[in-house]
């Protein structure tokens, strides 16, 4: 029997569906008509111990530990009345018989698929095991998993798509499985598999495919879809034995002490009695709350954005000060108006446990019953508690409430990692509901094009709004007066509110009054005013400009209808949209009001938007005012834009202030504030261009830092020095699904068809033994790319051999690879390699958006380990693979062209020859297209790179030669020779990506750049001598009249016929014939000074030691020639050439930084022109944060080297001191060190 069959599910036929009923029991004011299930009917009168709701809140299941039964309930659209028992399914009862069954966890989907993890104990307690069961409640059948191997599972859930996500063990691996719930042959198909690192413990899995993990006192979120890692929170004070060997105890400890819930805006985490709220937008923890502190819990709990996240965090805790206060306040009020439930015992007013929240309601277990909790009424009760609290009233709670339209200022001390005046953009549900209703009233049905009636009173306020509402207060604002005047009256009187908007004539559309808030919709925007009873004032709390055209421009109102529809959609979201640019542009009165120092609350609500307005308007004065008042939230949201503005407008004081703020905020909380460093790194291209000193300063100050107070040292392989990685490394094992299915099939055969299994095992072993070398290589490749992995099932021979191979390989590496002690550092270049997330896929192919890494190729970055580790990360993840593909493509081009150019014609027929030429044209054009894209992208940068010029020549020559050959049938050997030359050298240039070769290529380029001026001087001198020799030695006869075939006897000493050797006849008596007997025929080299081009070449030959060009003249007869030769020899050959060699020797130095810059340029080229646009957004390749290992011994050497050079900065004194202590290096005082260096320099 398989392990899936060891525990089963049966239907309890004894339950009478017709007798099932539910009693109404009202718990408290925060539980509106809360319902308790009548357990006497649903679970045979036994108490409920566990509940779960489906992923979209449509279905609820309850479990009774005493009855071992599971019952389903319909909860969709249940706003009033009792919970509805699902009569379409039979209750599920766990079979006991000879085994004892305890339900460990369960979850249910919207379509009534039930998954359970049960802990079973066999008879006499001989064996215990956790078993997974999946049950279709619609047809009462068990569902199997196609990749199930019988290993333990510890957690599961259904995501929003209805897929099952499982977490369990598989041969000491922590595996996440994705299963599609589309049933085929009563099985669910596995779609994805991931492996979690051993050092990480799973907390939970959200329905949005996000893992929450715990490691090293930190909580991480990993998005399984985007592969993005978020470090939510780090708490050095959290007590946890991370080295405990008992995995079950670790899981139980984490389950009891850590809980996480999240939505699209926030992640709320409970660690024991502390709750941390993390902002996804800001990427930092924004609040830390004590669950026993009423003052801290009231404000966040009363808002619908946070309440569904915070409320479930109170599950499984007996009580807390906050909930005692809330329930006590609510109980008296509730019982007073629900007298029919006076018999309710006090225990029902305790906080429910096992709370599960849906969109509008939450469900929990209260004294063995299930209660339904209305979250809106819970929020209302918290508001009541807030209103009636004397302590909160004394702190001007009315102002606090009035400013919570969508934000609030959290004020927690520094020790709890929260930030004073840090705005969290929330909203008031009543305000939003009112705005939705307001738009609904003014927009006619889509099927009618009715005129919109305007409530508009056109008095003498041509540029102001006049609102008329009724209340027990009368408030007026004079046209030319900036203050409001309010007077109490006994009867209802009109209330006038005026706001000036320049260059616009306001037209009132609709207005509503709610809770001292006046919501006004006009054709120039939406206004929200708030009346404060404490100081009798009215304030404009919100304005959003709407782009309407004047009413007189259109005869009908269809245009307005379309506009209102678009704005209705904008305001239909859960939160108010932030004010747009025109909201400030067209309302000077509001700009002054927001930036007014007297109203800090309004400023902190809109400071970021006002800051963006000031930046766009290039208003330096307004930017300065806002920056002095802005808080950390503003700096995080728009710090990049602000620093960009400061650099482009050359504001060094503002630049330095922003830089110091970012560094200081990071120093305040190393574990949670690292995102502030991204403000600097995102602007690194501009800083490097205009203020390069900041690039060097940042590189040196942030070297060897970590996002923790303590450095982590471990034993690792010797080749991992400066190896970069993401701290959370989840491995995608999806390619190995077939391997799991194969093992599951072999296990099934072993259990049910032993003879077949033995035959197949014998065949497998025979194949492996015969093809062992091939199997060995294949196994290595499959393991490397995660097509297979170690399972330890021993149900098939292949798996057995794979395990043996891995064990042997591990022992071999352990013996042959020495281990070293490494220390882990964080790379300070946060978000430095990330590309913009908003992009057009097609346009990105033509003109890709660069990231800061591609735009900043600076030696100040790559002279530190941080820059080198960054290069290593990119190269190891994708760079080397793409570089190999490019190289292989070029080798194919080189092979095709070289073959057709080199192989003699008799050995290759014309057809093959043409095919090779066509292949060369195609491959060359592909390579050439990438060069053209680079030229279009940045022509100036492309031209300045010498390698690009050579590359395009290397591609153009073979293409042109091949086309010319095909068209003319002419094998031009001159073109072929140059083409092969450039292709061969281009092949050599590919070695520049490897350090052992690359340093010499960088020497070639760097030396050439250093001596270019000297070369120009030398070239001019050579040209000057060539010119002098040309004038002296050129023939008087025009070059066109000189013939090398016909003898010409003219009186020109420089004529080639007069320079060639002549032979005369010698008689036997010793006399000679005065007439020439034989004359040697001249050629083009006889007088190389017949034209200036050849004269230059002759002088170059003379420079190399070949003086044959001057040997046809006698120096005795031509003293001028002798003087020129002496001058040239002394000045050029002796002096300047030796000087040139000396300069080369000085310029030559092995500079690793130049090599890293060269490699960075190669990687940037691959990123921009070879990766597809979506690949540049993969978080696995382009993470926000990178860590790297460094050898402890090399780290000691590097620190000592930096200290000796004066580069060791102590910007992070505590952190750097901890590192020095870990490495046993004597601490260094920076001021003393600088003084010592000055003394040494003065003595030298």
UniProtKB/TrEMBL annotation:
<dbReference type="GO" id="GO:0098703">
    <property type="term" value="P:calcium ion import across plasma membrane"/>
</dbReference>
<feature type="domain" description="Ion transport">
    <location>
        <begin position="885"/>
        <end position="1150"/>
    </location>
</feature>
<dbReference type="InterPro" id="IPR005821">
    <property type="entry name" value="Ion_trans_dom"/>
</dbReference>
<keyword id="KW-1133">Transmembrane helix</keyword>
<keyword id="KW-0677">Repeat</keyword>
<dbReference type="GO" id="GO:0005216">
    <property type="term" value="F:monoatomic ion channel activity"/>
</dbReference>
<dbReference type="GO" id="GO:0005886">
    <property type="term" value="C:plasma membrane"/>
</dbReference>
<feature type="transmembrane region" description="Helical">
    <location>
        <begin position="973"/>
        <end position="991"/>
    </location>
</feature>
<keyword id="KW-0472">Membrane</keyword>
<feature type="transmembrane region" description="Helical">
    <location>
        <begin position="759"/>
        <end position="783"/>
    </location>
</feature>
<dbReference type="Pfam" id="PF00520">
    <property type="entry name" value="Ion_trans"/>
</dbReference>
<feature type="transmembrane region" description="Helical">
    <location>
        <begin position="1121"/>
        <end position="1148"/>
    </location>
</feature>
<keyword id="KW-0812">Transmembrane</keyword>
<protein>
    <recommendedName>
        <fullName>Ion transport domain-containing protein</fullName>
    </recommendedName>
</protein>
<feature type="transmembrane region" description="Helical">
    <location>
        <begin position="881"/>
        <end position="904"/>
    </location>
</feature>
<feature type="transmembrane region" description="Helical">
    <location>
        <begin position="948"/>
        <end position="967"/>
    </location>
</feature>
<feature type="transmembrane region" description="Helical">
    <location>
        <begin position="1011"/>
        <end position="1033"/>
    </location>
</feature>
<dbReference type="InterPro" id="IPR024862">
    <property type="entry name" value="TRPV"/>
</dbReference>
């Amino acid at each position: 029997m398989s392990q899936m069959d060891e525990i089963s599910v049966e239907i309890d036929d004894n339950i009478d569906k017709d007798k099932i009923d539910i009693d109404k029991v009202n718990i408290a004011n925060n539980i509106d008509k809360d319902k308790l299930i009548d357990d006497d009917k649903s679970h045979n009168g036994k108490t409920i111990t566990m509940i779960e709701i489906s992923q979209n809140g449509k279905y609820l299941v309850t479990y009774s530990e005493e009855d071992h039964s599971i019952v389903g309930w319909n909860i969709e659209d249940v706003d009033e009345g009792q919970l509805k028992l699902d009569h379409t399914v039979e209750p599920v009862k766990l079979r006991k018989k000879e085994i004892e069954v305890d339900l460990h966890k369960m979850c249910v989907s919207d379509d009534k698929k039930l998954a359970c993890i049960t802990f079973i104990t066999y008879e006499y307690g001989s064996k215990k095991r956790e078993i997974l069961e999946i049950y279709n409640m619609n047809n009462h059948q068990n569902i199997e998993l196609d990749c199930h191997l019988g290993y333990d599972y510890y957690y599961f859930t259904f995501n929003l798509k209805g897929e099952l996500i499982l977490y369990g063990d598989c041969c000491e691996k922590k595996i996440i499985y994705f299963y599609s719930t589309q049933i085929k042959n009563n099985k669910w198909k596995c779609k994805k598999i991931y492996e979690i690192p051993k050092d990480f413990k799973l907390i939970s899995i959200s329905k949005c495919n996000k893992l929450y993990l715990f490691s090293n006192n930190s909580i991480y979120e990993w998005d399984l879809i985007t592969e993005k890692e978020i470090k939510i929170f780090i708490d050095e004070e959290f007590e946890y034995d991370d080295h405990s060997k008992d995995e079950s105890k670790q899981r139980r400890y984490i389950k009891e002490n850590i809980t996480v819930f999240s939505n699209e805006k926030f992640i709320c985490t409970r660690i024991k009695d502390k709750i941390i709220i993390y902002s996804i937008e800001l990427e930092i923890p924004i609040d830390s709350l004590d669950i026993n502190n009423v003052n801290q819990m009231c404000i966040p709990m009363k808002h619908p954005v946070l309440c569904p996240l915070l409320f479930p965090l109170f599950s499984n805790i007996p009580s807390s000060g906050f909930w005692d206060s809330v329930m006590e306040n609510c109980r008296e009020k509730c019982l007073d108006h629900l007298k029919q439930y006076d018999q309710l015992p006090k225990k029902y007013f305790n906080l429910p446990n096992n709370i599960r929240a849906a969109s509008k309601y939450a469900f929990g277990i209260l004294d063995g019953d299930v209660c339904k909790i209305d979250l809106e009424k819970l929020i209302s009760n918290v508001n009541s508690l807030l209103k009636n609290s004397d302590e909160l009233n004394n702190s001007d709670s009315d102002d606090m409430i009035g400013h919570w339209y969508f934000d609030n200022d959290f004020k927690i001390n520094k020790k709890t990692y929260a930030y004073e005046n840090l705005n969290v953009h929330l909203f008031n549900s009543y305000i939003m509901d009112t705005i939705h209703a307001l738009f609904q009233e003014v927009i006619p049905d889509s099927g009618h094009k009715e005129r919109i009636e305007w409530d508009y009173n056109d008095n003498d306020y041509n540029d102001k709004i006049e609102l008329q509402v009724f209340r027990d207060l009368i408030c007026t604002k004079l046209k030319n007066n900036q203050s409001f005047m309010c007077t109490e009256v006994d009867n209802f009187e009109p209330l006038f509110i005026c706001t000036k908007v320049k260059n616009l004539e306001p037209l009132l559309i609709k207005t509503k009054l709610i809770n001292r808030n006046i919501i006004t919709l006009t054709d120039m925007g939406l206004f929200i005013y708030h009346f404060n009873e404490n100081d009798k004032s009215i304030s404009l709390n919100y304005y959003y400009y709407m782009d309407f055209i004047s009413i007189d421009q259109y005869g009908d109102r269809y245009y307005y209808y379309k506009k209102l529809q678009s704005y209705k959609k904008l305001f239909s979201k859960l939160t108010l949209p932030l004010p747009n640019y025109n909201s400030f542009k067209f309302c000077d009165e509001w700009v002054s009001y927001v930036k007014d120092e007297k109203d800090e609350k309004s400023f902190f609500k809109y400071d970021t938007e006002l800051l963006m307005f000031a930046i766009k308007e290039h208003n330096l004065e307004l930017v300065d005012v806002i920056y002095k008042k802005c808080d950390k939230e503003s700096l995080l949201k728009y710090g990049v834009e602000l620093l960009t503005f400061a650099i482009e407008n050359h504001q060094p004081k503002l630049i330095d202030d922003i830089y110091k703020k970012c560094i200081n905020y990071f120093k305040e909380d190393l574990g949670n504030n690292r995102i502030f460093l991204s403000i600097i790194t995102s602007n690194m291209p501009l800083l490097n261009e205009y203020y390069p000193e900041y690039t060097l300063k940042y590189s040196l100050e942030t070297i060897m830092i970590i996002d923790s107070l303590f450095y982590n040292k471990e034993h690792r392989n010797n080749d991992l020095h400066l190896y970069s990685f993401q701290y959370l490394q989840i491995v995608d094992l999806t390619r190995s699904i077939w391997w799991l299915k194969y093992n599951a099939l072999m296990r099934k055969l072993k259990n049910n068809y032993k003879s077949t299994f033995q035959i197949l095992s014998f065949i497998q072993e025979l194949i492996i033994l015969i093809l062992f070398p091939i199997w060995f290589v294949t196994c290595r490749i499959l393991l490397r790319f995660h097509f297979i992995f170690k399972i330890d099932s021993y149900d098939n021979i292949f798996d057995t051999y794979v395990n043996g191979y891995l064990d042997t390989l591990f022992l071999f590496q352990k013996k042959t690879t020495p281990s070293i002690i490494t220390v882990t550092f964080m790379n300070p270049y946060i978000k430095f390699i990330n590309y913009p997330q908003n992009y057009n896929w097609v346009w990105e192919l033509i003109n890709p958006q660069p990231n800061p890494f591609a735009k900043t190729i600076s030696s100040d970055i790559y002279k530190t380990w941080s820059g080198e580790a960054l290069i290593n990360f990119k190269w190891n993840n994708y760079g080397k693979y793409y570089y190999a593909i490019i190289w292989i493509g070029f080798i194919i081009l080189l092979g095709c062209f070289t073959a057709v150019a080199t192989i003699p014609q008799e050995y290759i027929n014309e057809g093959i020859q043409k095919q090779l030429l066509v292949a060369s044209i195609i491959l060359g054009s592909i390579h050439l297209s990438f060069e053209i894209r680079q030229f279009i992208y940045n022509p100036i940068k492309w031209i300045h790179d010498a390698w690009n010029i050579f590359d395009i020549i290397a591609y153009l020559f073979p293409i042109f030669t091949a086309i010319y050959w095909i068209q003319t049938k002419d094998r031009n050997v001159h073109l072929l020779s140059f083409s092969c030359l450039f292709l061969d050298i281009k092949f050599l240039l590919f070695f520049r990506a490897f350090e052992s070769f690359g340093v010499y290529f960088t020497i070639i380029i760097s030396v050439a750049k250093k001596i270019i001026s000297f070369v120009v001087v030398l070239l001019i001198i050579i040209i000057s001598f060539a010119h002098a020799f040309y004038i002296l030695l050129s023939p008087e006869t025009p070059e066109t009249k000189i013939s090398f075939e016909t003898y010409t006897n003219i009186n020109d000493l420089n004529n080639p016929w007069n320079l060639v050797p002549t032979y005369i006849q010698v008689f036997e008596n010793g006399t000679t014939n005065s007439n020439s007997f034989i004359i040697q025929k001249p050629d083009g080299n006889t007088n190389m000074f017949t034209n200036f081009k050849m004269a230059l070449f002759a002088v170059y030959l003379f420079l190399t030691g070949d003086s044959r060009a001057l040997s046809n003249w006698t120096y005795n007869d031509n003293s001028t020639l002798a003087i020129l030769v002496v001058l040239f020899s002394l000045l050029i050959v002796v002096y300047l050439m030796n000087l040139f060699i000396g300069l080369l020797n000085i310029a030559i130095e092995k500079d690793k930084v130049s090599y890293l810059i060269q490699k960075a340029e190669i990687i940037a080229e691959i990123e921009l022109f070879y990766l597809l646009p979506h690949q540049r957004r993969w978080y696995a390749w382009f993470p926000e944060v990178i860590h790297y290992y460094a050898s402890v011994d090399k780290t000691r050497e590097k620190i000592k080297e930096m200290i000796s050079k004066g580069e060791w900065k102590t910007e992070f004194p505590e952190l750097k001191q901890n590192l020095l202590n870990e490495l046993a290096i004597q601490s260094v005082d920076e001021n003393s060190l600088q003084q010592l260096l000055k003394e040494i320099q003065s003595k030298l």
